[in-house]
Amino acid sequence: MGGYIPQFNEFATLAYRELTKGTLEWIKIADPEAQKLDDIQYGTATTIHAYQVKWTIADQTIPFTNF
User: What are phi and psi of 14, to 5 degrees?
Assistant: First the structure.
């Protein structure tokens, strides 16, 4: 589970922001139908937000082609 902590923290921050504004309508986590943007999804009345979260250890890089 340790590798998912940054992903969960980011999701919690984004979803909580919408929740406190009263605009959060739904959430999805690891939705296979979302294809590449499956890590974080949430919706408001007007927008669907979908993110793929990547992170690395200091001094390492993630090539653009891996996105």
Answer: -65, -45
Is residue 19's pLDDT more than 70?
yes
How many C-beta neighbours within 10 Å does residue 1 have?
Answer: 5
The domain limits of the chain are: 2-66
The one-character DSSP state at 9 is H
Whether the model pTM is above 0.70: no
Token pair for residue 29? 């986590």
Provide the residue count of the chain: 67
**pLDDT recorded at residue 34:** 67
DSSP letter, residue 35: T
The dihedral over CA atoms of 44, 40, 53, 3, expressed in degrees to the nearest 10, equals: 140
